[in-house]
Write a structure and sequence with these properties.
Number of strands: 28
Largest sheet: 9 strands, mixed
Number of helices: 20
Distance between the termini: 30 Å
Structural class: alpha+beta
CATH class of the domain at 350-565: Alpha Beta
Radius of gyration: 25 Å
Strand order of the largest sheet: 10-11-12-3-2-13-25-14-28
């Protein structure tokens, strides 16, 4: 996991709709594919950053302070397999085509964005098992006593995908870029102005990033990724439209090589990637080509898989693990199943109430709604007790998680109590009504496989006098509706980070406006005070105490109803795909993620096994069925 990716997950970046736990579905075809190639310091003051910097030669350089204690890490355990081989094509599926390839600005905050960002390295990374800092673009780093400044030595071999060298000047440019109003990205404008004060350049490959104030976990704040200034130039008012579909140079192992809108996106592995032999990257990112085909129907994906037209299929959903995989291709050993437990922060999956809607402005009604949702019945009847109840949106963060909070349970008496307290009455059809308005709300979602869950909630809610109108949309349409704050209730979840992040989701500065992650439109002065104190605190014990208070405040506001958490990955895959002895890392949320410097690219294609399996299938020969249950990082015991 790169610090860049952590920052993107920390700070208002990747929306992860609830169905995305199974979006990484792999299509078959393992041969090579043809492609169309498209493809102390005198610092740099803000006023100078805000003009075009054409060359690092134009940037004033300073003398490095004496006594810096440089650190590196070549000692943590590797997590890739030395048996991994290069080659093959990995075909994965997305359920809708992204609205843009930009990673900032309007419509950029979609789930596919992670595929692009995962191929953009940061200055440093985080080891997915030890959580220690590891090298990425920087080989060494150091901390200043001011707790605001972090020094970095860049790898002199680091290159952009157009073979331009990565230099300290790219980071100076990044501040200019991220502060520009022309990128139409208010969150980035704010963060790179209010949180990152300046970049100090010492030479082409030595720099410092200075935070605006002393920071806890400083490395998570300043280990930023560069933007390619030589490619973009100075952002102007044409930026959003001009770069909607441009393939921008990156520093990671893959680059987009071809795409057809609405149909597919292809990535090609860089054969001479500058970082391929580094300790934590060696034996990873093994497939030559990654193809994301747009397949909008999940049932169709399953049919493709059964016919051998897909290689990988997520079977986290209980009916697939328990029922649908009881088929000949599994029994005959052509397809393997794996249940891999992880130990990481849990996604805030649930129902997000829009408090700008009149009905949800009343806290009593929000509480009543929560008590009308029979989440436990969904877990029992639909999910076969394979999932667990999420108690709040920040579980799995160690001491930062408030273990005293329990989600509101289904309780008809409580519903009645809260509704009557706000002078609502039962209508003739059993639904609560006040001043001619019924307690009827729309639930926006996009993933067909979640319909049975919502149907149970809908039927149970009727008993409580609440009507749910289920609105299934295309993934892109659902995403846009929620980010535009036009929803009543959003059925979705968010990606996670190493530390809880509250500002983007719950601070009033992000309420009542589109394209921010405060989708509940929480606007509470006490919450703002707590969040600001949390952001400003340098004392870990104080931050933990504030974190607990914020989580309790979120619970008291009641605009988020937590639903489920899944502490594992379950996938089915054709037997020619191979995994390390320990198939993933503590943080792995997929075993077949082709990208991602922290947990991705661990699998590989075995041509001999592919050939032998295809011959055996033609002769109707079979292999022993394989089901792997790996509890290396399990915090629970599974129930096969």
């Amino acid at each position: 996991m790169t610090v860049k990716r952590i920052m993107n997950n920390l700070f208002n970046i990747r929306i992860l709709f609830a169905g995305m736990v199974i979006v990484c579905l792999v299509l078959s075809g393992c041969g090579e594919s043809e492609h169309n190639e498209k493809t102390g310091i005198q610092s740099v003051p803000e006023k100078q950053i805000n003009k075009q910097t054409d060359s690092i030669a134009d940037i004033p350089k300073e003398t490095l302070p004496v006594g810096i204690k440089w650190i590196t890490n070549e000692a943590d355990p590797v997590f890739a397999s030395p048996e991994a081989e290069k080659g093959g094509t990995f075909r994965s599926s997305i359920m809708s085509f992204p609205l843009t390839f930009r990673v900032v600005g309007p419509d950029s905050n979609s789930s596919f964005r992670s595929a692009i960002l995962s191929n953009q390295l940061g200055l440093i990374g985080i080891h997915p098992n030890t959580e220690h800092i590891i090298p990425e673009l920087a080989t060494h780093w150091a901390f200043d006593d001011d707790k605001k400044t972090m020094y970095f030595k860049l790898n002199k071999n680091a290159r952009w995908s157009d073979n331009m060298p990565v230099t300290a000047g790219d980071f100076v440019y990044t501040l200019e870029f991220m502060r520009s109003k022309h990128i139409v990205a208010p969150w980035y404008n704010d963060y790179y102005t209010q949180e990152i004060k300046k970049i100090i350049v010492y030479d082409d490959h030595t720099l410092a990033v200075v935070a605006a104030k002393a920071q806890p976990d400083l490395h998570l704040r300043v280990g930023i990724s560069p933007m390619p200034g030589h490619y973009y130039g100075k952002p102007d008012k044409e930026f959003v439209g001009k770069y909607n579909w441009k393939i921008v140079p990156n520093t990671g192992p893959y680059q987009i090589s071809d795409f057809k809108k609405g149909k597919y996106i292809k990535f090609k592995r860089k054969r001479d990637w500058w970082a391929k032999d580094l300790r934590y990257f060696k034996n990873r990112f093994n497939v030559n080509t990654v193809i994301f085909n747009v397949i909008r129907d999940y049932n169709m994906l399953w049919e493709y898989f059964k016919k051998g037209k897909e290689d990988i299929f997520s079977i986290t959903i209980p009916k697939y693990w328990h029922v649908k995989t009881k088929i000949p291709i599994v029994k005959n050993g052509y397809v393997h199943r794996i249940w891999f437990f992880n130990d990481t922060q849990r996604s805030a999956q649930g129902m997000w109430l829009n408090q700008d809607k009149e009905i949800f402005k009343d806290k009593n009604i929000r509480y009543a709604f929560a008590h009308a949702m029979n989440i436990n019945k969904v877990i029992e009847k639909v999910l076969r007790n394979d999932y667990f109840r999420l108690e709040h949106g920040f579980m799995g963060y160690g001491r930062y998680s408030n273990k005293q909070i329990k989600a509101r349970r289904f309780d008809l008496d409580r519903v009645k109590q809260y509704m009557k307290a706000s002078d609502w009455k039962r209508g003739t059809d059993g639904i609560w009504v006040k001043n001619g308005k019924r307690f009827s709300v729309e639930v926006s979602y996009h993933f067909e496989e979640h319909t049975p869950r919502l149907v149970v909630l809908k039927e149970e809610a009727k008993k409580a006098g609440v009507e749910l109108k289920l609105l299934k949309l295309d993934a892109s349409a659902a995403y846009k509706k929620v980010l535009e704050k036009k929803h009543d209730v959003a059925w979705m979840g968010w990606s996670t980070s190493l530390r809880p992040q509250y500002w983007e989701h719950y601070h009033s500065i992000n309420a009542h406006k589109p394209q921010t992650n405060n989708i509940t439109n929480t606007d509470d002065p006490e919450m703002d005070t707590l969040i600001d104190a949390f952001r400003n605190s340098l004392d870990e014990e104080e931050r933990i105490e504030l974190s607990h208070k914020i989580q309790m405040k979120i619970h008291e506001i009641g605009a988020f109803i937590p639903t489920f958490m899944v502490s594992y990955v379950r996938q089915a895959y054709w037997r020619w795909w191979k995994l390390p002895d320990v198939p993933g890392t503590k943080m792995s949320d997929s075993l077949f993620d082709p990208f991602g410097s922290g947990t991705g690219g661990l699998f590989w294609f075995d041509q001999d096994v592919y050939d032998n399996t295809k011959k055996a299938m033609k002769k109707k020969e079979t292999f022993e069925p394989v089901t792997i249950i790996d509890e290396t990082y399990s915090i629970r015991k599974c129930k096969p």
